[in-house]
Amino acid sequence: MNVSRRGFLKLSGAVTAVSGLGLSLKATAAHAKELKIKYAKETTTICPYCSVGCSIIVSTRDGKVINTEGDPDSPINRGSLCSKGGSIYQMVNNENRLSKPLYRAPNATEWKEVDWEWALDKIAENIKKSRDASFKRTNAKGELVNRTDGIASVGSAALDLEECFTYQKFLRGLGLVYIEHQARI
Amino acid sequence: MTNHWVDIRNSDVILIMGSNPAANHPIAFKWIQHALDNRGAKLLCVDPRFTQSAAKAHVYAPLRSGTDIAFLGGMIKYIIDNRLYFEDYVKNYTNATFLVNPALKLPGENRGVFSGLKDGKYEKDTWSYQTDAEGVIKKDPSLKDPNCVFQLLRKQYSRYNIDVVSRITGTPKDKLLEIYKIYAGTGRPNRAGNVLYAMGWTQHTVGVQNIRTMAIIQLLLGNVGIAGGGVQAMRGESNVQGSTDHGLLFHIWPGYLGAPTASLKTLADFNEKRTPKTKEAKSLNWWKNFPKYSASFLRSMYGTNASLEEAYQLLPKLDDGANYSWLQLFDDMYKGKFTGFFAWGMNPACSGAHSNKVRQALGKLDWLVNVNLFDNETGSFWRGPGMDPATIKTEVFMLPCAASIEKEGSIANSGRLMQWRYKAVNPPGEALPDGDIMSELFFRVRKLYLQKGGPNSQAITKLTWPYGKFEGKHFHYNPRLVAAEINGRFLQDKTVENPTKKGEFKTFKKGDLVPAFAWLQDDGSTSSGAWIYCGSVSDKGILGMRRITKDESRIGIYPEWAWSWPVNRRIIYNGASVDLSGKPWDPTRAVIKWDGEKWTGDVPDGAGNPGSGRPPFIMKPDGVASLYGPGLADGPFPEHYEPLECPVEKNLLSPQKNNPTIKRFDKPGVGSDLDVYSGVDTCDPRYPFVATTYRVSEHWQTGVLTRWCPWLAEMQPGMFVEMSKELAEERGIKNGDKCIVRTPRGEVEAIAIVTPRFKPLVVDGNDIHQIGLPWHYGWITTKNRKYDKGDKKAEVFTSGDAANLLTPTIGDANTMIPESKAFMANVVKKGVK
C-alpha cells in the first residue's frame, strides 16, 4: 500500500481511537480535534515568506480560512513551520487588508476609494503618455534602442513564477529597461 | 543553491557565515540538526554577532563585518600550505592547471590592485590565458609552473597569514585556526563540507568576491557537486529565485540570457556575442545552445506575430556599458528622469538603501502605481514623516492584490524547486490576483496603441497574451496556461533528431509541449518563456504539483516531489561527484552512479560516459570550475578591501583601502547632494561604530505583511539597536533605553538591547564596537502616525522606522547590491547630544 505520511497519520489515528483501554477518552480527544477542521476543504500552499519552501495545509469552510498548519507530507518541512509560516492565517483573515483601489490625486492630503475601471483606464493613459513622451528610438550614437526611458519598475519576488514571466513580458513590451526587484538588494 | 534543503542532512561540516538560518530560515535548521544528530556533523558559525545559529554551533568565531575575504583568504592559505586540498578534483575539475599570461600582476606586487586598472576600471588583457598555436589553453598538470592558476592562487593568499588576518578581522587566532582545521578536513573524498550564506555576504562592496572566496575553498576541497556539499545561497524571499530566473532585472532576460545592448544590431550579432566559444576539444560548452534559447524566448513574447529578427528589433536595448540597476534607478528618479513608476509587490521606501533618498525621489514622479496587500510606506510616502502632501505632485494608485492562498500559481525555493500553490479562498473585497491586474493593464494599453498609435507601437500590439479569458469585461488570468508557455511548445509540425541519441528522430505536432530544453530549436519552430523551466510541464501536467514522497536515493533526493530546474536535477554539478572513471568519490553518499549502461540516481549533470574525458562543469566554456575568474569587474582572485565606511585608517594588506572598481555616488557629476558617506579616507569620530542590519524570525523583509499580523507584531513589536554591555556602559545606555542611531544620511529611534551577543573586537590593537539593527519596521504601522480620513486603522502597532534610513548608496563592483551590512554609525541615548 502506498500511503502518504499524512494518510498514514490519519490511518494510525483511526486505529488508536478504536483500540485499547483508553477508548472513550481517546475517542473524545479525537472528536474534539476533528471538530476544528470538520467539513473543511483542504488545499495546500507554499509559505510566502522565506525561501525554504515549506508546505502548508489550508483548511477552509464556507469560503473562509479556518486553519493553517504545516504539511507533514512535505519532505522539506515534514509538518514544521516557523513563527511566520504559522501565522499566515492572520495574513488572510485581517481587517487591515486593502480591499478597494485607492487613489491619491496630485497634492491631495488623503486617499479616495475608486473603481477598478476608472483606475486601470487612468493608469493605462498615464503609461501611454509617459512612454510616448520619453520613448527613445535611437541613442546618442544613433543606434536603434526602442526604449522607454521615462518609466521604471521594481518588483517582485512576491509574485508567482507565472506572474513574474508575464510581468517582464508586459514591461519589456512597453520598452522598459529600468526593471529591478528584490534580488538586487 | 547548488544543492537543496534536505541535502544538508548529508553534510559532515556545515559553515554558517554571512547568514543566520536559525532565525531567518528556521526550518533549514531541521536538516542541520539532522546532520548533527545522525552524522555527528560539526557546525561552525562565523558572524559579527553571537546569533541563534551560533548558539547551536560547535565553534563560533566573531569577525568584524566586511572582512570575510581576509578570513577566508587565510583559510585558502591554510589549505594550500598544509596540502589539504583534494588533488585529483583540483587537477581535473578546476582551471588550476591553466597557464595565465605572465604579464599578470597580483595585488601583492602591484600596490593592492591587479594589473590593468585604469580610471576605476580594469583593462583585462593581462588576465588572459596562455594559448598554443591553435588557440588551446596551455596547461601544467603538475601544477608547478609559476604562471599556472594553482601557483598564482598560492602566491595571492601567501600574504593572508594568520597574524594579519586576525588583525584585520578581529577574530582571535585560535578561533581562526580551529575553524580552518575543521573545515579543511573536508578535503577528503569521504567528507562533505557545506556552506550556508545569505545577505551577510552579498550586501558588501566586495559581495561577489566574498562568495567567490568560499567557492574557491569548496573547489579546493572537492566539495562541489557532491551530496552534503556545494554552496548554498539561502534566498530571502519565497520566490526570489524564480523572479530572478524570469529576468525581472535590467541585465537579463528570463533564463539568464544577457539582455541585448545597442551595439548588437541584429539577432545574429546578439547570438554571436552571447554564445561562448572554446577550443577545449572535450568540453561540452552548454551555452553554445544560446541561440536556441533566445529564439524560443522571442517566440514566447511575440509568437508568430513577428519574425525572430523583427521580435529582436521590437524589444528595448541597453546602452553599452550603462547600468540601470537599483541605486542608479533611484538616483535617476531623484533627479527627475522618470514620470512613471511601478512598485509592484515591493516597498522600496523601506527596503532601499538610503530610504530618505528613495522617499524624496518618489515625490519627483508624476505617477506611481503600488500593488500590495496592505498599506505601506511606498504607496503612502506622501503622508510619511517630514512630508507635506500639499507640495507633492505625485499621483498615486494603490491597487489591492490577492495573497498567496487567494490565487494559484507556483514559486521556486532556494533549491530551485518549483512548487505549486492552490487557491483556498477569494481575495477580500475587490482585491484581484496580480495576473488579472497586469492583464487588464496590458489590454487597456494595447487598445490605446491600436486606436491612437505611437512610437514602436507594434512592440505592444504584437505581444501574444493567451493567458486566460474575458468573462464579461473582466479578464481572468490562468497561470496554468502561462506555466505551459514558460515550458514551451512546438509552433509547427517538426521532425527533430533526438539530442541524446544520434540517428533517432521524433516528430512533433504544432502545439506539442517541448519535452526538455535539449529539444528547443533556434529556427523559430519552438517557443519557451524560460529555457531552464523547459520540462516542467508535460502530458502528465504541471510537474510542480507532484506530491510523491518516495525516495530511493538514500540521500533525500525525493525526485517526484514537485519539480526542480534544470531537468528535475536536485544537485547541480553532480558530474563532479564521481572520479574520471565514473565512480562516486564517496559510494556511501553517491549522487549518481554508472550501472554499466547508464547513469542512475539524480539526473546526471555534465557527466559523459565514464572514461569519455568530458570535464563536468558544462556551463563553463572550458568545462572546468573557475579557481581563477577573469570575468569579474574587480579581479580574477578575491582580494581584501575595506568596506567604504570602515573603522580603520588603512587596509593592512595593501595601500589600496577600498575596492578600486566601485561606483561612488559622492563624486562630482555622479550622484546627488544626498549621497554622503562617513569615514572613507580617514576615520570620522562622529560615527565611530560599525553598524550592520539583520532580521528576526517573526518579521519578513520590510515587515510589509508581518507588521500587520497581531501575533508577529506582538512577538517583535519594534525597532531596536543591539549593542554590547561594554558599549552600553561607555555610552551610559541601559537595556530598554530609547536611543537614536545616526549616520550622515539619517537617523532612527530604537530601543537599546544590551546583550553579550556583541563583544568589542580588537582590530589591529584598537577596540572596535559593532551595533546591529533589524530592518523590518516602518512608520505606517506605528501608533503615533497621523490618521487621515479613510485610513485603515491598524489593530496592532509596531514602533520605529526603517533601518535603511541609515544605509549608504554604495554598491558591489559587479552587482551594485548596496553595502547594507557594514557602515559607520553613532548611537546615543535619546535626548543626549
Provide keyphrases for this structure:
heterodimer; A: 185 residues; alpha+beta; Phosphorylase Kinase, domain 1; 2 domains; two-stranded antiparallel sheet; B: alpha/beta; six-stranded mixed β-sheet; five-stranded parallel β-sheet
Description:
The complex is a heterodimer of chains A (185) and B (833). Chain A has 185 residues and is α+β, with helices and mostly antiparallel strands. Chain A folds into 2 domains: 41-92, Phosphorylase Kinase, domain 1, CATH 3.30.200.210; 102-181, no CATH class. Chain A has 5 helices and 9 strands, in the order ααβββαββαβββαβ. Chain A has helices at residues 5-17, 23-35, 88-92, 116-134, 161-174; strands at 41-46, 55-61, 64-70, 102-104, 112-113, 135-138, 144-148, 151-154, 179-180. A 3-stranded antiparallel beta sheet of chain A has the order 1-2-3. In chain A, strands 4-5 form a two-stranded antiparallel sheet. In chain A, β2 and β3 (64-70) form a beta hairpin. The longest helix of chain A has 19 residues, at 116-134. The radius of gyration of chain A is 25 Å and the shape is elongated. Mean pLDDT of chain A is 87; it is low at 11-25. Chain B has 833 residues and is α/β, with parallel strands linked by helices. A 6-stranded mixed beta sheet of chain B has the order 27-29-28-33-26-32. Chain B has a 5-stranded parallel beta sheet with strand order 3-2-1-6-7, sandwiched between helices. At the A-B interface, β1, β2, α3, β4 and β5 of A face α11, α15, β10, β11 and β12 of B.
